């Protein structure tokens, strides 16, 4: 099952996007709808609200007077927190039930306004944010739903900021334009990313090798890596001693292939095997076979690791699961930190990569590129070790 978290500020267009995804076949779980169900007449949820806020939040027919409660909740932070404390656990329990019921090959879209506020991003395979300028959103809510402008603005003030949403967004859909524009983006997202992502995840399919196109440094790589690392940490739980962004994309200014390298540190490779299933289910598919870090690795196993591929076709990730006992674990961190501290080496390494990528793009070989690059890296390790001694570096 692929879990997609869909969020955005009030009036941004979540329901519009969700409806289109459902037309394509997604299973929708609508948090606002569940939040209504758990406070319907006769529910414990409604009784608790009345105990907390008084009978004045009830309409004449005994149902919740939503406008009355909204007036309290969106003008007073304390009241909103008490409301959330009553409603959110019930919504969470019902959501878990519905998720558990979805088919193994489902693409589940969870339409949830407070995804960012609840710190829930790492529990989804992909987070999709719909956004529109605040004034556009307010205008739409006032015109199409008759919501008083002040009510819309109070709710916006009670929600996450655009910057907080940006930090967790794997996909950002700008819905400031016409509906057709955003719907076309949703159609492409479904076909090009969500459908193959789900298949890769379910079939545990490794990503096919790609030709080594080296790109200029992208300053969004660290935040993209942080999102993936948050998922890795959540999936690995206490087995994770630490998880780091390593490799070329972790070095500011360094040209690199657009593949994020991550290192999950575990005590032993038995632990790596124990979390393989959880990592695979979280979107980092375990690669079968024997993986080791050194071309001349002997039979002693010290260079052995476990290897996982990110299943998201839109965000290539390599996850190296290593024991802190092995030498490669330390070298990965050393190499990164040495380069970060030595711009001259970054420039030299960039040059080597560009030259090799160009040479091997012509003959299409991935292996040749990797092998030749390794020669520069091996020589770099000697200089990095000298640097570590000089500076007192520790991992
Ligand atoms: C206060 C209530 C009764 C007002 O009902 P109303 O029919 O006017 O709004 P509705 O529930 O349709 O929500 C509309 C939008 O308001 C925003 N919103 C609702 N609750 C909250 C909240 N607690 N914090 C911030 N924004 C909220 C969301 O963007 C949501 O999509 C209702 O919103 C509620 O019970 N909220 C608490 C539950 C909740 O947090 N729901 C959000 C998803 S779990
Ligand atoms: N691109 C668009 N152009 C014009 N109107 C739009 C567009 N997208 C959505 N709308 C309208 O704006 C309003 C808000 O959109 P929608 O209900 O999809 O937002 P939402 O994020 O689900 O809102 P809520 O936070 O209240 O659940 C709706 O009336 C919708 O029909």
From TrEMBL:
<keyword id="KW-0173">Coenzyme A biosynthesis</keyword>
<dbReference type="GO" id="GO:0004140">
    <property type="term" value="F:dephospho-CoA kinase activity"/>
</dbReference>
<keyword id="KW-0418">Kinase</keyword>
<keyword id="KW-0067">ATP-binding</keyword>
<keyword id="KW-0547">Nucleotide-binding</keyword>
<dbReference type="InterPro" id="IPR007344">
    <property type="entry name" value="GrpB/CoaE"/>
</dbReference>
<comment type="similarity">
    <text>Belongs to the CoaE family.</text>
</comment>
<dbReference type="GO" id="GO:0015937">
    <property type="term" value="P:coenzyme A biosynthetic process"/>
</dbReference>
<comment type="function">
    <text>Catalyzes the phosphorylation of the 3'-hydroxyl group of dephosphocoenzyme A to form coenzyme A.</text>
</comment>
<feature type="binding site">
    <location>
        <begin position="11"/>
        <end position="16"/>
    </location>
    <ligand>
        <name>ATP</name>
    </ligand>
</feature>
<keyword id="KW-0963">Cytoplasm</keyword>
<dbReference type="Pfam" id="PF04229">
    <property type="entry name" value="GrpB"/>
</dbReference>
<dbReference type="InterPro" id="IPR027417">
    <property type="entry name" value="P-loop_NTPase"/>
</dbReference>
<comment type="pathway">
    <text>Cofactor biosynthesis; coenzyme A biosynthesis; CoA from (R)-pantothenate: step 5/5.</text>
</comment>
<protein>
    <recommendedName>
        <fullName>Dephospho-CoA kinase</fullName>
        <ecNumber>2.7.1.24</ecNumber>
    </recommendedName>
</protein>
<dbReference type="GO" id="GO:0005524">
    <property type="term" value="F:ATP binding"/>
</dbReference>
<comment type="similarity">
    <text>In the N-terminal section; belongs to the CoaE family.</text>
</comment>
<dbReference type="InterPro" id="IPR043519">
    <property type="entry name" value="NT_sf"/>
</dbReference>
<dbReference type="InterPro" id="IPR001977">
    <property type="entry name" value="Depp_CoAkinase"/>
</dbReference>
<dbReference type="GO" id="GO:0005737">
    <property type="term" value="C:cytoplasm"/>
</dbReference>
<keyword id="KW-0808">Transferase</keyword>
<dbReference type="Pfam" id="PF01121">
    <property type="entry name" value="CoaE"/>
</dbReference>
